[in-house]
Structure formats: structure tokens, C-alpha cells
Amino acid sequence: MLPRSLGDLRKSSFSDPSYRTRTVKDEMRTNLVRRLQDNQPIFQGVVGYEDTVVPQVINAILSRHNMILLGLRGQAKSRILRGLTTLLDDAIPVITGCEINDNPFKPICRRCRDLVDELGDQTPIEYRSREERYVEKLATPDVTIADIIGDIDPIKAAKGGHAIGSELSVHYGLLPRANRGIFAVNELPDLAGKIQVGLFNIMQEGDVQIKGYPIRLPLDVVIVFSANPEDYTARGKIVTPLKDRIGSEIKTHYPVTLQHGVAITEQEAWIQRNSGRTILIPEFLKQVVEAIAFKARADQRVDKRSGVSQRLPITCLENVISNAERRAIVTREEYVVPRIADIYAALPAITGKIELEYEGELKGADTIARDLIRQAVQTIFRQYYPSTDFKQIIDWFEMGGNLKFSDLESASSMLSRLENVQGLLDRVDVLEVQRESPAALQVSAAEMILEGLHALDKISRSEERGFAASERKAAGASQELYRDYQMERNRYKKPLN
Known about the structure:
Blueprint: H1 6-10, H2 17-20, H3 24-37, H4 53-62, E1 67-70, H5 77-83, E2 91-95, H6 110-119, E3 125-129, E4 134-138, H7 145-148, E5 150-152, H8 154-160, E6 170-172, H9 174-177, E7 181-186, H10 193-197, H11 200-204, E8 208-209, E9 216-217, E10 221-227, H12 231-234, H13 240-245, E11 248-251, H14 258-268, E12 278-279, H15 283-298, H16 311-331, E13 335-336, H17 340-345, H18 348-351, H19 358-363, H20 365-384, H21 391-398, H22 411-418, H23 439-455, E14 459-462, E15 466-469, H24 471-491
Parallel strand pairs: 1-10, 1-11, 4-7, 7-10, 12-13
Antiparallel strand pairs: 2-3, 5-6, 8-9, 14-15
Helix pairs in contact: 14-15, 14-16, 15-16, 15-20, 20-23, 22-23
């Protein structure tokens, strides 16, 4: 049973001298050391930062630093900031009703000091959970000093019968309310310069002064920020003295490997649906979706300063599954298996996530998105089939064969037509799909092969004919036959007199 009065609190473990004087930074450091000793993960759900960002965050906490995370959009900055709460104690005692979570052993606000003087050991105690000790503010240009620090509240003074100059008339801002906890500011450059200046004291001296009141509050708080480095000139900047007061500057990044990206997307995307059908997502399709983001980040037509958020593959995969789910519902199929065609149906989840340079704007977002899908398919296809001979399949198309599929055609219908393509279904095992696998999986793998051959210009694909013989190759063959004809004709030409 937790103590509920100041007298009981003095008799409990909370009264230990080391606990009474411990700051929030000391608390986080102690809990972090314990977690490192027990070899426990520091942040849940953060993938790909194990050797880069996480060690730097750990060093900042061990150093008792305030910190800033710099990175483009969609790089898990907010998740890391919110994950810092796991390094706080489960609960801390505060004086009941205190707006700034006052330490019962050393209250700093006038209301709590008066209450302890009046009630002594009978002063009521309550507890704040770690989640309640995290205060976050999204920086916007309209944020004021009163929002962050506080101000004198005339209404509060009138209702309480206090003088305007009384400390009891103070309205506390978000920063004092984060006392004995963590205060996070997202998108710091958007905060007006004069508001950033208001943070100087708390960053260096550890106290703030409420506007119009001479008493300073010695707050105990960890301050963390996030910012997009490219926003410094686009929307604002971090004032130099404030930047100088931030202990550690940590740069985040996008997933370095395709495997990390796939793991993040699988973790964040809404994959398990309640449609009553079995959802099977081939691994190669997850990789193609992820490769779209990788290709976009490297494409010269996409704005690098804006970045390509990890939300692109997440929302794209969700849209892909939804299109496959729609098909399964219409055709009354048991399995929901996405195909490459479903990625093209998910263009709305791609085009809204990329900012284009001038060259890209001329071509249009849809054209760029389709090109990125084709590049992604080509990359993944080459990984699975680095040197496989597809001559048998290509010859089938060059002999006049073609395949056109409907977006809502059932897997069994498509499979019966795909079986006519010589050697096609014999290659799906490389994509970890067997001939005894559900028809929808075989169709998805076969379409991946066809789309891969199209990406390599071995066969063509159009809205009218679907998959067919390569137009470029056919044109090249025609030119070669014409040259052979001309050479043969010239051999039998009689010389002119």
C-alpha cells in the first residue's frame, strides 16, 4: 500500500536521502544502467537504429544531457522521444492537486508550501505514473510564452481572491507542468525565436521565471527536441544560443537495408484484417513495396530535402492488401494474396508521399510513381533471378502469345491461363512458392516473373494487350531482318555498266 500522507511518506522507502535529492536525469540514468546490465532492449519497436542512433541516445542519457533528434520526416523521432518514458519510475509521489508535480519533501510552488505549513504530516499525497510525466508540444508559429512558461491569470486571481501580484495567481505553462518529468518539443525550428529564447534559463540554470512575477521556479525536467534539419531555412531556425545549450545532437536516418525497412513496415502496417479470410503476403511483394521507397530516396526527380517517409511503404502495403481483399471478396476466394498489379492500384498511397523536383513535376507524380514501381520490381527480380534463362517464356510471347488480366479476375481463372505459358510456373519455386501452394500464391509469383521480364524489357505490357512480346525487341528484330534482306539482295544485284 502506497503512503497517502506526508507523514507516512517520511516513514517509507521514498524518504531515503538519495531519493529525495535525485533528479529526473539521475532517475533515467539509474534505470538505464539497470536495463543495460540486464541486457534488456531500450526502445520497443525501433528497428535499424541498434548500431547508430540508440547508442548515441544512451550516451546522452548517461551524460544527463538534454538532447535533440535531427532527421527527415518518418524517421521515428517522436517514437524515440515517447519511448524515453520507459526509463522513468513506475510512479512518483506528489502533493495532491499540485499542477507542477511538486516533490512533497521540497515543494517549490506557493500553494504546496502553504499546504505543508498548514497540514504538516497530514498533507495528502497522490502519485503520477510515467505516462503522466511526459508533456509534448508540437511547435507552431502561434505558440506563446504563456503557453510554454506561463503567465499571470486575472480570472484565477479574482476567483481565489488573490492579488494580481500573488504567486497563487500564476497560470503555469506546459514546461512547469512537466516538472519532475520529460518535456518534448516537436519541430523546434517552427517555434518563434523569442519563445526559444525563453528556454535559455531552464536549459542552463534549471529555472524559469513566470512573466510579471519576480520568483523563479527551480524546475527539475529533462528537455528533448526533434527537428527536420532542412526546415531551418524553409520555415525557421534554431537560435544559436539555444542550440549551444542542448547537450547532444543526434541524427536519425532512414532504414539502411531492405530487411530493416521490411521489418518496420510489417510492424507498423495494418496487415491482419477482420474480413474472415486468410491473408498471405509473399515475401517478394513486401520487398518490392519497400524498394519503392529506397528508389524514391535515390531518384533525382524526388526532392531530397523533403525526404521520403517510411509511411510510404506502410500505407502502400495497406492499400495493396486492401485491393487484394476487395478482389477476394468479389470472387469469393478464401485467400487474400496481393499481386504486383495491386501495387499499381495503390498509387494514391505513393504519390502523396513524394515531393518532386522541377523535372519530376513536368512528368507528373503518377508517371514518376509508376516508374519507381518498375525500378523496384526490376531490383527485386534480379535478386531472385540473377542469371536464370527465361528464353522459353519469352519465345512463347514472341510466337504471338499474350496475357491480359482483369483486376478482379479470380486466381483459379488466371492460373488456368498462366499454365499455357511454357516454363512459367516452373520458375515460381525460386520465389518460395510451390506448385501445390494455393492458386492465388502461384498467380502472384507468376505475375512477379512477368512483371520482372517487362521491367527488363524482355516482354511488353500495355493496357490494351496486357503482357505481350517486347515491342523494342520486335522492332529490333524487324530491322535486323530488313538488313539481312538488303544484304542478300545486294549479293545478286548486277553491276551497273
